[in-house]
Design a protein that fits this description.
alpha/beta; six-stranded mixed beta sheet; 34% helix
Length: 241
């Protein structure tokens, strides 16, 4: 379980991006963070992963204070992060990258299972380099496969739908639906997409650096789709269909 208490962050220029965020991401559930662009969603994800350091507040994973740990130390504790724009690695093959994530060699069946869950045929990809020859959608799906390979305590996906075609996106929805409730940990997705919001257990609305609303999908999603804030005070949030 991830617990966040009073988390705040400013840019080097002094602009406040997050303002005293309190959030619990429970195990065995899928939590989706949504809200307008520029509201602080990706910054929140980066703070959780250790890519940025908060100005104030605390972050706990399974009761351990990880606020001062760097991204490598957090990865060792079990936090996996899938970037909105994945990094390319010239000279590494897809097999290399997935096996590095898994921490051991994988047989063909295991590679087929992992890549198949993100809509890729292992035979067509395991020997390809993770470089500019891969499309944006392909590299995104490969990165998500590496997160799945790690069996993390907390898996964070930053807009996994970005750059992915509709057929592959449908497959990812099935993957996240299958993972929910089966992983030994928590799933956190940053997304605007209604189809991802529709499979969430919990929805958190972040706008102007604050949590404007949070609760079950059944309570929050209808108000987002109608444009009428569930709390009666939040701005209309963007939900892309």
């Amino acid at each position: 379980m991830l617990q966040i208490e009073g988390l705040s962050w400013h840019t080097p220029a002094g602009e406040q991006i997050l303002d005293h965020i309190d959030l619990c991401v429970p195990d065995g559930k899928l939590t989706v963070v949504t809200g307008p662009n520029g509201g602080g969603k990706t910054t929140l994800a980066k703070l959780i992963a250790g890519l940025e350091k908060p100005d104030s507040g605390k972050i706990y994973l399974d009761g351990e204070d990880i606020t001062d740990l760097n991204v490598t130390e957090r990865a060792r504790r079990g936090i996996g992060y899938a970037f909105q724009q994945p990094v390319r690695f010239k000279g590494l093959t897809v097999r290399d990258l997935v096996e590095l994530a898994a921490g051991s060699g994988l047989n063909e069946a295991a590679l087929c299972d992992l890549l198949g869950r993100v809509g890729l045929c292992a035979r067509d990809y395991i020997d390809r380099e993770v470089d500019g020859s891969l499309s944006g959608g392909e590299i995104k799906r490969i990165e998500i496969a590496t997160v799945l390979a790690r069996h993390t305590r907390l898996s964070v996906f930053d807009e996994p739908e970005a750059g992915i075609d509709l057929w592959s996106f449908a497959g990812l929805i099935d993957t996240f639906r299958d993972l929910r409730g089966k992983v030994d940990g928590a799933l956190l997705i940053i997304s605007h997409q209604e189809r991802i919001l529709s499979i969430a257990d919990e929805i958190v609305v972040v706008a102007e650096g604050k949590i404007r609303e949070q609760g079950t999908r059944e309570r929050i999603l209808p108000s987002l789709l109608s444009g009428a804030p569930a709390c009666g005070r939040c701005p209309k949030e963007e939900v892309r269909i």
